[in-house]
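ugh ok fine here u go
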Amino acid sequence: MQPAVIAPSILSADFARLGQEVDTVLASGADWVHFDVMDNHYVPNLTIGPLVCDALRKHGVTAPIDVHLMVEPVDRIVPDFARAGASLISFHPEASRHVHRTIQLIKAEGCQAGLVLNPATPVEVLDYVLEELDLVLLMSVNPGFGGQAFIPSTLDKLRRVRERIGASGKPIRLEIDGGVKPDNIGAIAAAGADTFVAGSAIFGQPDYAEVIARMRNEIDAVSR
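structure:
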């Protein structure tokens, strides 16, 4: 297992002072910045685009920016996010006519590539593309809204994907997104996740550092 990564989702941040929010959460121990990009087409909500990513880079953010595209079609927007400073771009197979081609496009643009599985998306979608990926993201809620409750069946799905990653022998990260909190992150880590997206569980709290420290303690307790 690779070292744990905490990736707060700016969907839950205060957008009136976004640069300061991101600076604070990184100084509080976060590793990545997670972007939830929604288009009011693939999912029923509308959030942020490449301009926000570019603005944070110009603000001085140097941490990896983890872009989760909940958009359809996906290929059109990939180069824009790559130019705006994305480090890793993930997409949903349902949003691409040619999944392998989209993975190749992301890598050709200089970013790492991830594939996102919704709660009802079978793990078999990974059969012919897993070894091309840098990350697999499992949604533990249905995409489109923040603040939803964790879907327990995701734990078994995490175990199944972790087995596949182990069999591949490649350093592919296994990310979880949706309802992740200090009181369930230990079970999520035990099931095989090594990268954890959290929105309101961090940005909705008065002390970001305290929450992130609690999360790391729970993750570390699993590996002892």
